[in-house]
Design goal:
The relative contact order is 0.10. This protein starts with 8 loop residues before the first strand and ends with a strand. The strands form six sheets. Strands 11, 12, 25, 26, 27, 28, 29, 30, 31 and 32 form a ten-stranded antiparallel β-sheet that branches. Strands 5-3-1-6-7-8-9-10 form an eight-stranded mixed β-sheet, covered by helices on one side. The protein is an alpha+beta fold and 573 residues long. The longest helix has 25 residues, at 197-221. Helix content is 19%, strand content 40%.
């Protein structure tokens, strides 16, 4: 049902002062502009905190970090509340109450008279004040940090940066009337910046801003469906301890750690340059591990995103090629014969915009290709006129969409398209979106639960979906430690237009050589497995790199076995 046919939801916002952060302002602006909701009341509330002297160094660090690493758009920029919500009535509770004390009787009656639909308490300033009983759809909060670790929840992204934790978690939770535990509505796992807390927070906050707006609009459009979906959500335990920033002694240790890391990174970049190369292996294991033979590009370019197919006794590897000087990719073809001999790549497809990820497949006896054309904000389908070198644009499958690594697959009687979609302001991390159709020509319908996954460790596609012992597996990129660090193998458990569920069962990681930094695409054709690897090459004396690479598993389980990994994911509208 269209939410415009309903009265807007009435929102109560809990704030900690006269300003709100930019990410929250953009969220509220979007829902009010859409007509889904309006903020009718704001409560100023804040927990009591101790003196600031023992946290002086942390305050200095916050200011310096934001000065050096400020992101654009800046999620943390302070927006004046009165300017952001000019028609909203404000009640200041800071002098009357603190922390999670219950509301006074008169205030509770006043709030009840407002007929509040949703309480937005993003920072859990009034988590136990009884607001859930005064709102139709509960109290919505945004717990940050890792479950069971109060430190990371009090200071978002700080300890993750200092301790080198590769990802930072965020949850959107709802405290329902009469329920003792919160329900999980959305989970985001974003990358942690190695050096900056504010940049890491920027990734987190923009993703939660989009998710919060999306869910408020969904509630406004169809409350019954939203409640049904919420009732199936997983209960979560969130520690709401007192806000406590790191003390001065902790900050001295943390500062020393960050300085050492910065120096190590600068030294590595001074000695080495990074380059993507291809590597292949012959064998029947799925997915393959162990030694791979390398296909190394000239020093002025990189090769990535290999998609092999076998025709006769030759393996045709379609892949991206891009000069290191400007990184505009084109599609080229490398051929490996049955004896392992290779020839120089030949050009296949070039446009005035970036091309990569040449997903080549057969349908109705013809070859087709869906390359990544996110820079052109559409998904394009190409038809092979003369194999393997002549291709023409068949049609545009999706317009106005910057889709990373579009991956089609035929499963359960339908064609599915997996794609990574970026959240504006959240850096390079993407969320996994699904589309379905009766044929690869479309038309393509968005999945009801989009985005079906928001996890930097396994959202972005990394190659063809493959079958093993009757099970379907989806390779995905793990970009937590860096872009293209590893390939996550996920078994698909449920796939239909309403729900998607998968579980990670394996992971392929670079191993055996300290100068191999990542592996980020996995594809197979008959008995050949092809990957791409990020290698470090000396700047002063260039290693020719004509040797083998080793790829190992991270022991989450076996992709052909029944033992699941510890991390699963389920999405439903």
């Amino acid at each position: 049902m269209n939410h415009k046919s309903r009265a807007p939801l009435r929102l109560l916002l809990v704030t900690a002062g006269g300003t709100i952060p930019n990410w929250l302002y953009q969220c509220l602006d979007a829902v009010q502009e859409s007509g889904a909701a309006t903020v009718v009341l704001a409560l100023h509330a804040a927990r009591e905190e101790g003196g600031t002297l023992h946290r002086l160094l942390f305050s200095w660090y916050e200011g310096i970090d934001r000065y050096l690493f400020r992101s654009v758009p800046d999620a943390l920029a302070a927006i004046d509340l009165q300017s952001a919500l000019p028609t909203c009535r404000v009640v200041d509770l800071r002098a009357a109450r603190a922390g999670s004390q219950p509301l006074s009787g008169s205030l509770a009656h006043a709030l009840e008279a407002e007929h509040i639909d949703v309480v937005l308490d993003p920072f859990s300033l009034m988590s136990d004040a009884g607001l859930a009983d005064l709102s139709t759809y509960g109290v919505w909060s945004v717990p940050f940090g890792h479950s069971g670790d109060p430190r990371t929840q009090c200071t978002p992204a700080f300890w993750e940066v200092v301790e080198g934790t590769p990802s930072t978690e965020t949850r959107l939770c709802i405290q329902w009337r009469g329920s003792e535990r919160k329900r999980l509505l959305y989970l985001s796992v974003a990358p942690t910046d190695r050096r900056s807390m504010s940049r890491s927070q920027n990734h987190v906050y923009w993703k939660i801003s989009a998710a919060l707006a999306r869910n408020i609009q969904s509630l406004g459009a169809d409350p019954d469906a939203f409640v049904e979906r919420l009732e199936t959500g997983a209960p979560v335990d969130v520690t709401n301890g007192p806000s406590s920033a790191p003390g001065n002694l902790e900050m001295l240790r943390a500062g020393a750690c960050l300085v050492r890391r910065y120096a190590a990174d600068k030294w590595t970049r001074t000695l080495y340059r990074e380059q993507w190369v291809l590597a292949y292996q012959r064998g029947s294991d799925r997915p393959a591990t162990g030694l791979f033979h390398t296909l190394v590009p000239p020093v002025d370019r990189y090769w990535a995103d290999p998609f092999p197919i076998r025709v006769g006794n030759e393996y045709y590897i379609f892949h991206e090629e891009a000069p290191l000087s400007h990184y505009k990719g084109t599609i080229v073809l490398s051929v490996v014969d049955d004896a392992g001999k290779t020839a120089a790549p030949i050009p296949i497809l070039e446009k005035d915009y970036h091309l990569s990820y040449p997903f080549v497949f057969q349908w109705d006896g013809e070859f087709f290709m869906i390359p990544e054309t996110a820079a052109h904000h559409r998904v394009e389908l190409y038809h092979c006129v003369t194999f393997p070198s002549r291709w023409k644009l068949e049609r545009v499958l999706l317009s106005g969409l910057a889709a990373s690594d579009p991956t089609p697959a035929f499963a359960f009687g339908k064609w599915w398209l997996f794609a990574g979609i970026r959240v504006s302001g959240a850096g390079a991390s993407v969320e996994l979106h699904l589309f379905y159709a009766d044929s690869p020509l479309g038309p393509w319908t968005p999945h009801r639960a989009n985005p079906v996954k928001s996890d930097v460790r396994s959202a972005r596609p990394a190659g063809r979906i493959f079958e093993n012992d009757g099970q379907l597996y989806r390779p995905a990129q793990d970009c937590s430690r860096r872009y293209g660090y590893a390939v996550s193998i996920n078994r698909i458990l449920q796939l239909n237009p309403e729900a998607y569920e998968e579980v990670e069962v394996d992971k392929l990681v670079p191993n055996g050589r300290p100068d191999v930094a990542g592996v980020h695409t996995l594809n197979m054709a008959d008995d050949m497995t092809v990957i791409d690897c990020l290698v470090r090459r000396r700047r002063v004396w260039t290693d020719p790199w004509h040797h083998t690479l080793r790829v190992d598993r991270s022991h989450h389980g076996a992709a052909d076995g029944a033992a699941p990994a510890h991390r699963s994911h389920r999405s439903a509208p």
